[in-house]
Amino acid sequence: VSREDVAKALDAVTAGKDSFASIYGRLALRQSELGMPTEAARACIAAEASARAIDIVKRASKYLRVQNVSSCISVVKELVTFANSIVGLLSVAEESNKTNGAVEIVSTYFTGIQDALGKPEPRSMYRLYLSDILANRVVSEKEEEELRRLRALFGLTETDALETFKAAAGPLYNKGVSAALASNSFDDASKA
Question: Which of 40, 115, 117, 160 is most buried by a 10 A CB count?
């Protein structure tokens, strides 16, 4: 599988043109035609996926540096969408290896993202994305999974994530408490 073949496959994935199985089938056929070992093909897929993710995260970083929060969040959402698409494709590729879940796939195939950013940037981007999710005070299972994938993309530890959660949730909590105190209403509807 050449990098060009992988690029075409990733373009098809992000465009949603074909099913993941169809796209992966074309890649597997090309790999077979070239007589390429599986590990070499996986390395090629990882290199292309990582390069594209790094391009996306560099755009988010530019917005973060100029404090354009809404654009930074939009680009981080684009990164999450891209990662979700690639996880879909690679889940087909990893079908025979049921031990690899989405987070493991992200950790395996998306490398070098943390190195493309300054040290505080991954946590800052994660905090902005988390704050956006927490704005409605409910985190769905889908959003929870996306947060796990984003932590894996950014190389954040559970401790980093917890500290970031406290930083993101603190202002929302304080705002909720202040609103409840100001309204002088402590019924069940106000507690939500």
Answer: 117
